[in-house]
Amino acid sequence: MRSLYTIGIHLIAFVLKCAALFNEKLNKGVQGRKQTFKLLEQGISETDKTIWFHCASLGEYEQGLPVFTELRKCYSKHKIILSFFSPSGYEIRKNSPIADIVIYLPMDTQSNAKRFLDFVRPELTVFVKYDIWPNFLNELKNRQLKAILISAAFRKNQHYFKFYGSLFRSALFSFDHIFTQNKASRELLNSIGYHEVTISGDTRFDRVTNQLNMNNSLSFIHEFIDGKLCIVAGSTWPDGESLFVDFINNNASKDIKYIIAPHNVKMSRIHNLQKELAAESILFSEKENKQLTDYSVFIVDTIGLLSKIYNYADIAYVGGGMGNTGLHNSLEPAVFGVPIIIGQNHKEFPEAQAMIDNGGMFSISNHKQFNTILSELITDDNKRVACGAKNKDYVKKNKGAVSHIINYLNIN
After folding, report:
1. In terms of CATH, what superfamily is 219-398?
2. Could you tell me where the DSSP H helices lie in 212-264?
3. Rounded mean pLDDT, 191-204
């Protein structure tokens, strides 16, 4: 099985190289992996002690960040190696202050795993959520190197729990301990004989709670809103943006301000969005020397500001759920006490269902439902405030995963 898997990895690597000729994002990953071992050789000496953090992409990095931050403090004399599989994680966080060396994870072959660990020799390895690579994990186990998985969330239809998933099941047993988000995940692990499990919860609750301790002020957003009701559409895709375009175009009001932060900040898409809007709009990149109060719609054509922008929201829409791209982080607006609207595709996001059940989040599947819910939240001040308070309370009650993990590691 392992040999077949490794052959498959080589085939995937070949396909990625071919596809990279036509796809800029894939090309960044292919080219970046060519530099991995060079960066490790240059950045690590034989006397260095190291800790290795691995994330699939940006979302897992944000999820793991509160744990990484604590471990950075606890292992201040160690070099931190941070690896990503996806370019969307690496390209945005390649200069992360949490790490000494940031790299692309090499393809999961046995030879790459051996070579990688010959360089890194981590005293502790932390994987986040689900990015399980059998050859790397097997090599960690063979070398008796400590590894943990945090914020894990499992479903019974995953290959770990199928008759053909023996290789991936064995990879899970390479972890010294697994911290799950919920009881169901622990029970699934128990069903395959894995018992070194703690239900710690989701570290994202700690991550977003930490946001409250930061300076979340943005003077240009404050100027743009000008004391009006503010609706923020975050991490939007075209299917969600069309909801807002129709609503804004059919419900003109000088008393409401809209902020749209597209997931894809490609300028051709941004300009098309502007053209679709009947209301006056301004881009983040064009805001200088403009009277921002004159505009009804502010379009954020950059990255890295959304978590602070949610601080200004009276109502939030979180993208990804209208299509199949995956719901984006709905905890970011929730921590600020904001009622939230999402699309209908949220089954793999238990925090979304929990907030829906609590009455602070609303799932819609079409324009009519969107218009109805948004109109109610705009006109009913009491409902809007009460729904937002439920979301904030939900986040507060579920934080604490980081302390479970740090306590297990027995470091203070």
Report:
1. Glycogen Phosphorylase B; (3.40.50.2000)
2. 219-225, 238-250
3. 95
